[in-house]
Specification:
Elements: H1 3-10, H2 40-65, H3 71-93, H4 100-117, H5 125-138, H6 141-146
Helix pairs in contact: 2-3, 2-5, 3-4, 4-5
């Protein structure tokens, strides 16, 4: 049996054999969490981002069909934004670590812009709530753990002193050994 077959049988995916990366110690790929491992908050944030992308695509079509000089330009900008949102939402669903930044940034941008419309258009509360749900779900602790973004100084081993036999240096707290 070839090494690639052994790695596949053990669940290890290597870049050398066309995979996306080595599986993490937690038992699932850091790039693509399995459906049973994905926390609901990750799925909700990705889904709401794709919902926002569909909404922007519909607004782009409406802008293209509107009469006026700016319709085509606004439609093109909205269509590009919809494509960016769909790309970020899909990458977030697949567990790409980098995708949380664009998802949160887009959610905050949508929240601010739609919240601005609420006084004159109460229906703007709906997309504002979607944006708020996206941001909250994207920064939820379970999502952070699933994306392996929770690794920090507390998760690393403490540094070993260079010389274990040397006495500790005196401090200015008055616990220095008596002189003499």
């Amino acid at each position: 049996m070839k090494l690639a077959g052994i790695c596949a049988a053990l669940g290890v995916v290597s870049r050398r054999w066309g995979g996306r990366g080595v599986r993490s110690p937690r038992g699932y790929s850091a790039d693509v969490p399995s459906a049973s491992i994905r926390p609901p908050s990750l799925v909700i944030a990705a889904g709401l981002t794709v919902v926002a992308a569909v909404f922007m695509a519909v607004m782009a079509v409406l802008a293209f069909t509107a009469r006026g000089a700016l319709g085509a330009g606004v439609g093109a900008a909205l269509l590009g934004w919809a494509a960016l949102l769909a790309w970020a939402g899909t990458a977030f669903f697949r567990g790409r670590r980098w995708s949380r930044g664009p998802v949160v940034a887009a959610g905050l941008l949508h929240l601010a812009s739609f919240a601005n419309f609420v006084p004159s258009q109460p229906l703007a509360l709906i997309p504002a709530a979607v944006a708020l749900g996206t941001v909250v779900a994207a920064v939820w602790p379970a999502t952070t753990r699933a994306l392996h973004l929770d690794v920090g100084p507390a998760d690393t081993a403490p540094a070993e002193p260079a010389d274990r036999g040397a006495p500790e240096a005196p401090t200015d707290r008055g616990d220095a050994p008596p002189a003499g």
